[in-house]
Amino acid sequence: MPSAFSQSWPPATFASDGTSATVTGGSLSISNPLAADFAGRSITGANQTTTAALNTFSVSDLRGSGVGWNVTAQATTFTGTNYNLAPGSLLMSSPTVAANGTLSPPPVINPALSVTPIDAALPVLVASALPLTGMGTYDFSATTLTLALPANVYADVYASTVTISVVTAP
Fold first, then answer.
1. Closest to 143 in 3D by CA, of 65, 11, 33, 62
2. Residue 86 vs residues 60, 78, 94, 147, 148: alpha-carbon distances, Å
3. What does pTM read for this prediction?
4. What is the pLDDT of residues 64-114, one digit of tens each?
5. Are 167 and 72 in contact (CB under 8 A)?
6. How many domains does the chain have?
7. Range of 158's domain?
8. What CATH number is attached to the domain comprising 142?
9. 112 DSSP assignment
10. Cβ distance 121 to 71 under 8 Å?
11. 59 phi/psi in degrees, rounded to 5
């Protein structure tokens, strides 16, 4: 008696067709963090500091290239009506960063940020997403800006513009 397994079947016939999916990249962008005004100070004849908050911001790398990016901070010299504060007077505390819906590794915060003045000639590195990292959206926490006022500061109203930028970087 022949077994069911020994029966021969005709060769199978297959049909196939190729398919594709197009994925279009977007842009590299940053939200605008608002900087609060500094607390006022009275002249005391001693060195002082005053602080202000720099609100949260987000960076989105939707390019789909994995080339990496840097966040930088830079502030203009504090200029008053009659006087200016010396460059190197403004520090920024280190933010934390959290992924927002992405599994790509997060950027690395610059460990020297909190001791590097941001009101200098060149932008200061805040965070760096190395190649193949930082893809998606990342939320940066609020930070503290600390302004140093020398003992011999002149009475005036001083103003500066703080710029947080994101740039392509390997």
1. 33
2. 34, 8, 22, 11, 9
3. 0.86
4. 999 999 999 999 999 999 999 999 999 999 999 999 999 999 999 999 999
5. yes
6. 1
7. 28-168
8. 2.60.40
9. T
10. no
11. -120, 130
